[in-house]
Design brief:
- This protein is α+β, with helices and mostly antiparallel strands.
- It contains three helices and seven strands.
- The radius of gyration is 15 Å and the shape is globular.
- The N and C termini lie far apart (40 Å).
Amino acid sequence: MVDVLTEITINCPCDQVSEYAANPDNASEWYVNIKSVEWQTPKPIEVGSKIAFKAAFLGKELSYVYEIAEYTPGRKLVMRTADGPFPMETTYTWESLSGHSTRMTLRNKGNPSGFSILFTPFMSLMMKKANNKDLKRIKFLLEERSS
């Protein structure tokens, strides 16, 4: 089982951080590994929405479809693979720390199968590294825009 939790404090209001992070159209801007995003259901995001992603991870091209399983604007977003290399769940949470600061968490958990199960410990380490890089990127982008 892969279960990676990362977090960061972003010096922007919670509504600004959550609106940006929850919009799949922004994913390729702040996720280093996501190369493209394609809506498979009409916008805006809601429970049941499906979004196809193309990504690069550990030297491989990955294509997967996430379905929105839970969405509470400004608080929490849970996405699960509807189609992809292995079952994965991604959860974002946002918590206002003050009027102008937000704690954002990013959690990925799933069960690699087949050959990739051998690489689970390595995969967890690489995911944590990638997630930290992504959170630093979203922090930079949002704080730059609000300054």
